[in-house]
Design a protein that fits this description.
Layout: H1 19-22, E1 30-34, H2 41-57, E2 61-65, H3 72-79, E3 87-92, H4 93-102, H5 110-113, E4 114-130, H6 138-147, E5 153-156, H7 162-174, E6 179-182, H8 186-194, E7 200-204, H9 205-213, E8 217-222, E9 248-256, H10 261-275, H11 278-286, E10 290-291, H12 296-317
Parallel strand pairs: 1-2, 1-3, 5-6, 5-7
Antiparallel strand pairs: 3-9, 4-7, 4-8, 4-9, 4-10
Helix pairs in contact: 2-10, 4-12, 7-12
Length: about 325
């Protein structure tokens, strides 16, 4: 059985289903795959987590950046790795919940090929416009878009990612026509947004926070259930009459499906204890990420619900990636 924990409580001693199976684990460094380039949000979150996990689990954790195919390359390598607990990864919402419905040929199946250990963080998405766009509220943006169908252009960090699908969900809900320009990452997308080449964007709060605070971008709404302490005056989409436009990006901890339950339990215990520590929570909060650390069962249920939710959005838009 997998070991569970109550939220807010640190784990102490574990009772193993098969004590001999994990008694020597880990006895060598653990590879932690980040399926994106170094320096990005997933990489930063991973290094905060692994620094703490290493001290708790009593072994070195080596971060390996393995980018490609919007994060799928790195996750696929973990799905195909030996299930011995020495290869684990951080996986984004796009890799676990969205591409299943978007891509005709997935290199792995999240619910069949991966052990879903725990949700690491939730990262709120925020809707912004370039400072020259004549819209100071979500209502004004909707009115502008309806008055000029097909004229406003929105950026995303790539096809099928949360920033892309968050805007598609907004388009469906507001019944507006916006033109999509996908970029190969957050940096080029934000640069063109700041330059006025595109006018609108949904993206992770950490990616946009500095430009919002400097006044170069105007924040219209948070696609989350609650307001953010870092942007207390920005209302949520629910407050503005669009509760269905909920778009929290998130990352989870995964391992090969063949990894023994007792080893998964030990990995989960270290990750959950790290994510419930004040030290890690504060560091992640500084990055605009909210630590989670739930049970494997809770995370698996959440992934299934996200696959269904975004599947409906993708079906309604007719999006497909070959």
């Amino acid at each position: 059985m997998r070991i569970w924990m109550q939220r807010g409580c640190l784990l102490g001693l574990l009772l193993w289903a098969s004590p001999g199976e994990a008694q020597d684990y880990p006895n060598r460094p653990i590879k932690f795959v980040v399926p994106f380039p170094a320096g990005g949000p997933a990489d930063t979150i991973s290094r905060i987590l692994t620094d703490k996990m290493a001290s708790l689990i009593g072994q070195t954790m080596v971060v390996e950046n393995r980018a490609g195919a919007g994060g799928l390359t790195g996750i696929a390598s973990v799905a195909k790795a030996e299930g011995d607990g020495y290869t684990i990864a951080i996986a984004p919402s796009s890799g676990l919940a969205m591409n299943v419905n978007l891509r005709e040929n997935m290199p792995f199946q999240p619910l069949k090929d991966l052990a879903l250990v725990t949700q690491i963080v939730s990262v709120p998405e925020i809707l912004v416009v370039n400072e020259k766009v004549p819209a100071n509220s979500l209502t004004e943006l909707v009115s502008l878009a309806k008055a000029q169908p097909g004229k406003l252009v929105f950026a995303s960090t790539g096809l099928g990612g949360m920033p892309h699908l968050a805007m598609e969900l907004f388009k469906l809900s507001a019944e507006v026509d916006l033109v999509h320009v996908p970029y190969t990452g957050a940096a080029p997308a934000v640069n063109d947004l700041l330059g006025g080449h595109v006018q609108v964007m949904f993206a992770d709060v950490p990616v946009l926070l500095g430009s919002i605070q400097s006044g170069k971008l105007r924040a219209l709404a948070i696609g989350s259930k609650t307001r953010l302490a870092s942007l207390p005056t920005v209302p949520t989409t629910a407050e503005l009459g669009m509760p269905q436009v909920e778009a929290d990006n998130w990352y989870g901890l995964v391992a090969p499906i063949a990894t023994p339950e007792a080893i998964i339990a030990k990995i989960h215990a270290a990750a959950a204890q790290a994510l419930h520590s004040d030290e890690v929570r504060e560091k992640l909060a500084a990055q605009g990420a909210l630590a989670v650390g739930n049970s494997s069962a809770e995370f698996s249920s959440y992934v299934r619900s996200e696959i269904e939710r975004w599947g409906r959005v993708i079906a309604a838009t007719g999006l497909k990636i070959k």
